[in-house]
């Protein structure tokens, strides 16, 4: 395991400005006397498993069919088990400040904070919500991959007799060909590439990935997750495998497990060099760290790596 992978973040600051125009102008949102709307999410740089959004709850006052009371919540959704976030924020409606709050939370799940309560709203009124503040990540670290699958699919994992498709892996590290048996229907459910196979095709040879990576990816199709922390190289290889074989959902849950920090960004950047999609995300995060003067760990290692590449 890479030691830098689990190092905590030293209080990273994220200035946040959200301007949201709820879609109130259509009466279809007010067919019921009570309801809610959600804003587009704000994603924290380098942490796809952590996001926040606004939720607007509304309820008719009963006085007439145009008058409502509204409440706005700031909601954080984190997939990371080891998370500490704090901050302060100001809410405003149409440029008028309503409330200022501080907050703090730990660990994964949904965390809700009230922005304002019982604000009046008349249907058809121009309406924009502004949230401005600073969020601080005190600690964040990668979490084991989590995936949701139907229980019936998970139960098939031990049904070895029903596994009717064989994936062969030419593993360069082991210098041998290994095989992994899987239900073809499960493989086709999660992979666009294998979905195109006809019913007579019973096997496939995979090159360019070691057996450990292939096994982790295919086990995820059954909802079976690795019981150990992955290092940056393994995360990148898993993403490349999921990308190569059109396993979009698998790719999403892998990315949500990754947490980039100033301590590990150089390792991820080095291993993502030939995987452009994630490489550019790493460069964006490096720029973010440079913009706010966060000290980047192992930067010398990164410089030496690219210096060697350019010479070659």
TrEMBL record:
Every BTB domain range: 163-262
SUPFAM superfamilies listed in its UniProt record: POZ domain
Classification via Pfam families: BTB (PF00651)
InterPro entries: BTB/POZ_dom, SKP1/BTB/POZ_sf
Coiled coil: none
SMART domains named in the record: BTB (SM00225)
Transmembrane stretches, start-end: none
Domain of life (superkingdom): Eukaryota
Protein name in UniProt: BTB domain-containing protein
Organism from which the protein derives: Panagrolaimus davidi
Lineage of source species: Eukaryota, Metazoa, Ecdysozoa, Nematoda, Chromadorea
């Amino acid at each position: 395991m890479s030691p830098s992978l689990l190092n905590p973040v030293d209080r990273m600051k994220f200035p946040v400005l959200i301007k949201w125009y709820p879609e109130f102008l259509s009466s279809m949102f007010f067919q019921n006397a009570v309801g809610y709307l959600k804003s587009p999410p704000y994603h924290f740089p380098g942490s796809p498993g952590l996001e926040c959004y606004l939720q607007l709850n509304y309820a008719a006052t009963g006085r007439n069919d145009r008058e409502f009371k509204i409440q706005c919540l700031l909601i954080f959704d984190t997939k990371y088990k080891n998370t500490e976030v704090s901050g302060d924020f100001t809410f405003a409606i149409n440029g008028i400040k309503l409330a200022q709050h501080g907050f703090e939370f730990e660990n994964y799940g949904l965390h809700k904070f009230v922005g304002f309560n019982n604000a009046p709203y008349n249907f058809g009124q121009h309406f924009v919500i502004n949230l401005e503040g600073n969020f601080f990540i005190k600690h964040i670290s990668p979490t084991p991959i989590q995936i949701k699958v139907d229980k019936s699919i998970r139960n098939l994992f031990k049904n070895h007799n029903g596994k009717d498709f064989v994936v062969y892996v030419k593993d360069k590290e082991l210098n041998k060909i290994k095989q992994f048996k899987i239900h073809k229907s499960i493989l086709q459910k999660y992979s666009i590439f294998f979905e195109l196979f006809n019913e007579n095709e019973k096997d496939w040879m995979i090159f360019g990935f070691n057996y450990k990576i292939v096994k982790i990816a295919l086990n995820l199709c059954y909802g079976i997750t690795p019981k150990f922390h992955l290092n940056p190289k393994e995360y990148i290889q898993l993403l490349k495998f999921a990308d190569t074989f059109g396993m979009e959902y698998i790719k999403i849950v892998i990315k949500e497990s990754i947490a980039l920090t100033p301590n590990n960004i150089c390792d991820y950047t080095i291993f993502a060099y030939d995987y452009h999609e994630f490489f550019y995300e790493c460069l964006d995060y490096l720029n973010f760290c440079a913009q706010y003067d966060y000290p980047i760990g192992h930067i010398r290692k990164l410089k030496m790596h690219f210096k060697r590449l350019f010479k070659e």
